Structure formats: structure tokens, C-alpha cells
Amino acid sequence: MMAFNQVRHYVQKARKVYGHPLHQGRGAAAVLEWAGREVRARLSRQPTLISYVNRTRLVWPRRASSVGICAAYGLGEFQDMAFVLHMLRPEDLFCDVGANAGVYTVLASGAVRCQTVAIEPVPSTFEVLKSNITINEASDRVDALNYGVGSSRGTLHFTSSLWSFNHVVPDKGDDTIEVPVDTLDNLLQGRIPRVIKIDVEGFEGEVLKGARQTLADPGLAVVLMEVSSQVARYGQTKEGLKSPAYRHGLRSVLVQPV
Questions:
Q1: What is the residue extent of each domain of the chain?
Q2: What are the distances in angstroms from CA 107 to CA 77, 136, 145, 158?
């Protein structure tokens, strides 16, 4: 049964790769390339190196799903990533809150070559982020901060072995670490990004509470934020999550690349 489920998983994945917007007209070739990367990644005991956008590259530890979807699709989160690529200019500042392995940071400071403040709380993931910054020769364009982001300065407990799905937990446990946390206003030190991406597994509301000065600045054009049911674990609702941004004149829009 397990083998059957694995086969079904890969068949479904191959279909998604074939039909991805970036693979129009070359679906079969894209599937073969993806299959080759999967085989190499499974055979290697070391993180795999994959090609990315505009001659950038990504270090891919096998469990880093944020890199894995880019290995499969090129732009793993197609709409959001395409928007970042088209929105940013080399003279802009990008802020990556919950940077994880750095797939958005590399888009901004590797492909577009703008400045980035990349913030990632979990030390093991932060090391992968730094590797991806270094391999793309973007160290002079990225300020990488090993911090959590919240509504006030202090410390919080995070899960530590879930890679892209690490999140804040209320208490210390076997699979948790204590991480220094500060507000986004403090961490940016007066710098105003053109675009902020926030992906913190439901903790977005607390991040916004600590970003009042940044949200109020007219130089900020876009907050690219995941809004999911995970906000409920922190006492938030999807609609309530948008209120702080709305108070500062930001509005929800759906971006559809063409």
C-alpha cells in the first residue's frame, strides 16, 4: 500500500509539473528534468544544488519543501514569486519575514539584485538561508537576521525540525528552541521596504502589530502575506488579520501574472 501511495504521489506531481504555467510548450521536458533532480536528491546524502531564476541557484536540503517546490516548478509559488520579480527594482528594499531557506530572498537579491532584509528565526534553517545568499554572491545585498518577529521584544519558543512549517508554540517542549524576537519596526531600523513578504505559519497578526511605523510609511507599496486557517492557533481570524493593514490604507488584491 505504501509503495502504491508513493507511485500515486509522483504521478500526481508529474502532472502538476507538466501543466505548470512556466512549462507551457515543454511539459514533457520539464517532467524529465524534475525526475532527474528527484533521483539525484534521493541518491545524495548531501544537499542538492539546483538551478533557479536568472542564473541563480538554490541549496536544497531534502526536507526543505520551500526549495523542493522550486525544484519541481521553477517558481514554486507562481503568482507571488512572479509578482515579486516584476514589482521589485534594483534600487528597492525587500523584506523577507520568515525567510526560511531563502527562495524569496534569492529572487530579490539574486535575480533582481535589490537590497533585502531577510529574517529567519530557526538557526538550522538560517544556516541554509546564509548558504543560499553566499552561493549567489548576494552577501553585500542581504542583511540576514536570525530573529523571530512579533509584537514586542523578548523571546518565544519555536518548533525546530519542521523546516518550512516551523512555528511559534506557547511552551517549551522536546522539539522546541527559544528564539530572540523583536518587532519589525525595530529590526528594520527606519528602513522602509518597497515590498514585505510575511510567511510565519499563522503568526502574521503579531508581526503586523509590531510594524505600525513601517505600515504607515507611504514608501511601502505591498505587503505580500499568507492568510490561512493557521491564524486560529494564535486567536486570529482571516478577516481580523487584515485590519492593521487596512488602517494604513493597504487593500487586498489578487495578482494574476500574464
A1: 76-234
A2: 12, 10, 18, 26
